[in-house]
Amino acid sequence: MTEPERLIEKHAAGGLLIDSNLLLLLFVGRMNRRRIANFRRTSAYDASDYELLEHLVSVFHRTLTTPHILTEVSNLASLSGSELASVREVMKDFVEIMEELHEPSRVVVQDRAFHRLGITDAAISSACAGLLVLTDDFDLYDSLGRRGIDAINFNHLREWRRQLTS
Predict the structure, then answer these.
(1) What is the structure's pLDDT at 1?
(2) pLDDT digits over 122-149, tens only?
(3) In sequence order, which ranges of the chain are alpha helices (DSSP H)?
C-alpha cells in the first residue's frame, strides 16, 4: 500500500480538507469539465485531474474547509457572466454540505506558519488536527509534514497515476 493510500484509508471516516487551488478545480470541473484547460486559474490541470479529485472526494465521509479557503476560492473564480453564476452555484451547493472550521484570525496569525505561508495556509495548519489535507502547494505540504499533520500532495498523486497508466 502506498503512503497516499494509507492516509486515505486512515482518514476516510474522519474527513478531507481541500486546499484552495484544488477546491477551485473541483468547482470549475463540476461547472464544465472542458473549461478546466482554458481557464487561467485551472489550466495547470486537465479533466483526468478533475476526475481523480472527484474520486478522492467520494471516498471521504466529510469534506471540510475554512473561511479563508472559501474566500480565496471565491476570489480566484474570476469568471464572468453565466460562467461566474454557474461556478458560484456549484460552490454554494458544495459549501452547504461541507463542514467549516473556523479559527479566529487573531489566533491564526499567531501560528508559526503565518509569516512564511500567509493566513490561508496558517488557518489550515492550525485547524486541521486529525484531518487529511489535500494540497498541490509544496510549501504547505512540507510545513504540515514537519508538524506531523497528515497531508497528500496532489502532484504526487498525479505522477503516481501517470506511472500506472504508462
Answers:
(1) 75
(2) 999 988 888 999 999 999 999 999 999 9
(3) 3-11, 20-31, 47-59, 67-76, 81-95, 105-108, 114-117, 119-127, 138-146, 154-165
Cα atoms in the Cβ-side hemisphere of radius 13 Å centred on 119: 14
pTM of the model: 0.93
What is the rounded distance in angstroms from the CA atom of residue 118 to the CA atom of residue 113? Answer: 7
**What would the pLDDT profile of 19-35 be if each residue is shown by its tens digit?**
999 999 999 999 999 99
Tell me how far the alpha carbon of residue 57 is from its chain's centroid. 10
In the DSSP assignment, the letter for residue 99 is E
Give the three cell numbers for residue 80.
Answer: 464572468
**pLDDT surpasses 80 at 164:** no
Confirm if 19 and 67 have CB atoms less than 8 A apart.
Answer: no
Q: Which domains does the chain have, with CATH numbers?
A: 3-165 (3.40.50.1010)
Give the span between the Cα atoms of 33 and 25, in whole angstroms: 9
Question: Mean pLDDT across the stretch 77-102?
Answer: 95
